Amino acid sequence: MKRGMILENAEASFLDITFDHALATTLTTFHDLSDDDHDEVLELDLALDVGDISHVDDTETRQAIWDTRRKFNPDAPTGDDMISQLGHLDDAIDDGRSLRVWISNDPSDLCGYYWLCARLAGNMAGEVFTVNVTRHAMKLMGVYKRNTIGDMSLDELVNQINNVTSVNGLTLRDIKHIWDVLVAENAPLRVNVNGVIISVADSFYDQFVYASVQDTPTKLSAVVELTIEAGPGGMPLWWYLSRIDTLVANQMIEYVGDERDVADAEVKRVTQN
Predict the structure, then answer these.
(1) What are the DUF1835 domain coordinates in residue numbering (predicted)?
(2) What are phi and psi of 134, to 5 degrees?
(3) Which of 142-146, 237-241, 256-260 is predicted least confidently?
(4) Using an 8 Å Cβ cutoff, are 31 and 39 in contact?
(5) Which of 51, 130, 175, 252 is the most exposed place for a label (fewest CB within 10 A)?
(6) Cβ(50)–Cβ(64) below 8 Å
């Protein structure tokens, strides 16, 4: 793989791919402001770190996950959006377009990238590049940690956009093997532990969520922040909120009052008699 290549001579068939809805919006804004020829962004926010991945192209298999995501994040893409984007991907592959894939160590990014490599292996006529974005970013007062790649600002994107790695056919096949193993395991959840995607139960984060809830009312936003700090990072906000709802349903924690908005809601542990 060739690192640090500058895509100054990229052809018009080149397009960006991201597995994060927010980053897709930032990339679209970048292209609009730069008025360049590479203004198409393919958003494959498939959430492949969660749920059944045995048949990704069978959108009915994935619909329940996408519905759960939209329950907690109404701005998330719909199932119809995903079907449309998958169609655009097929067209890009058939047309031999060159792809620039934005990834981080977030489970959703890595799982999406592994799936994409499996799809491209032996079936890619155009060039493939990756932009690897760290969840640690420099600020004037030091280093801060993003929760997901979608937290990246436009200025940070500009600094990253030419920091690319060329991906060859051998690498695509090697990564396809990683994806094949994850599909065979087909666990409810996939997380990044020490740089490796592993298959775990959907209750994996519950221990971190419960430890972040007190006997007295605690802001839901604070619970999420503490959970992110305590456990492996990179999971989207909607996933933490869905697990909090599960713990409420299991009568381990409870909401305080009627407020459910993440900014104002409070939760506390259920008192055991």
Answers:
(1) 16-132
(2) -80, 150
(3) 142-146
(4) yes
(5) 252
(6) no
Cα–Cα dist 19/83, whole Å: 14
Give the pLDDT score at 35: 65
How far is residue 73 from each of residues 176, 227, 262, measured CA to CA in Å?
Answer: 31, 19, 11
Dist. CA 26–CA 13, nearest whole Å? 20
Question: 203-269: what fold?
Answer: Arc Repressor Mutant, subunit A (1.10.10)
> 0.90 exceeded by the pTM?
no
Look at residue 158 and tell me whether its pLDDT is greater than 60. Answer: yes
Segments in 35-101 forming alpha helices (H):
59-72, 79-94
Query: Which range scores top for mean pLDDT: 7-21, 99-113, 132-146?
Result: 99-113
Q: How far is CA 69 from CA 64, 103, 166, 241, 245, in A?
A: 9, 20, 33, 10, 13
Mean pLDDT of 92-121: 93
| DSSP three-state, residue 102 | strand
Tokens of 194: 């020490």
From CA 223, how far away is CA 217, in angstroms rounded?
Answer: 10
Strand 41-43 with 128-132, pairing: unpaired
